[in-house]
Amino acid sequence: MFYVYEWFIKTTGEIFYVGKGTGKRYLVKKRNYIFNAILENEECDVRIIKTFEDESESFKYEEQRIQELWARGQAKANLHFGGNGGVSSVWTNEMKEKMSRENPMKDERQK
């Protein structure tokens, strides 16, 4: 079984991280500097939001959920658009193009 999970701030309900996992991956508390800072300064919790039999479907949903939350100014600790299995150190040309197109930090002129 695969799943998509969300870390959120208990007092506000703000979702600051979305991930895809299996087993106990959702319980890992050390990720990137933004995630770690939020976890250190806020009362946070995690929840599994959807389960999948097919890993590729879980990747698709993770990516979709991150995009939805970025559009609302959330998922601030997601530094990448998701759907790549945590691979961020080796980028294919397709991944580079996709990140360029969908990067929330770029305006339309930069994309």
Name the beta content range.
15-25%
End-to-end Cα distance: 36 Å
User: Which H/E pattern describes the elements?
Assistant: EEHEHH
Largest sheet, described in full?
Answer: 3 strands, antiparallel
Task: State the total count of DSSP E strands.
Answer: 3
The percent range for helix content is 25-40%
| Low-confidence runs of at least 5 consecutive residues | none
- Strand line-up of the largest beta sheet: 2-1-3
Shape: globular
Helix/strand-derived category reads alpha+beta
Total helices: the number is: 3
pLDDT averaged residue by residue: 85
- What is the radius of gyration computed over CA atoms, rounded to a whole number of angstroms? 14 Å
Please provide a written account of the structure:
There is one protein chain. With 111 residues, the protein is α+β, with helices and mostly antiparallel strands. The model has no long low-confidence stretch (mean pLDDT 85). Helices cover 32% and strands 22% of the residues. A 3-stranded antiparallel sheet has the order 2-1-3. It has helices spanning 33-41, 55-71, 93-102; strands at residues 2-9, 15-21, 44-52. It is built from 3 helices and 3 strands. The longest helix has 17 residues, at 55-71.
Sum up the structure in keywords.
single chain; 111 residues; alpha+beta; three-stranded antiparallel β-sheet; 3 helices; globular
Describe the structure concisely for a colleague.
The chain has 111 residues and is an alpha+beta fold. Helix content is 32%, strand content 22%.
